[in-house]
Predict the structure.
Amino acid sequence: MIYDARTFGQLVKECRKRRALTQKQLALISNVGVRFIIDLECGKPTCHLDKALKVARMAGLKLFSADQSLQRNEAAHSDHTEPDEDGDEGVMLP
């Protein structure tokens, strides 16, 4: 479970490494700066949520809610730039 920015950042870092991506490569495919990746992976709590979620998707991390009533149509929110490989890391949020 993810309870804080540090845990989220570590999970993003682990996913990035599993995909054999450097911080620079992840920044490029996520359209953010390398400094943002560094801050996110270190758990900086003031990182922009939208950017952080995009970086997480590009690193292969999939987030979803355990509460089915909160689920939304995934296709409606897809930007078609997410990795679509098997083995993406999935994290269930409370």
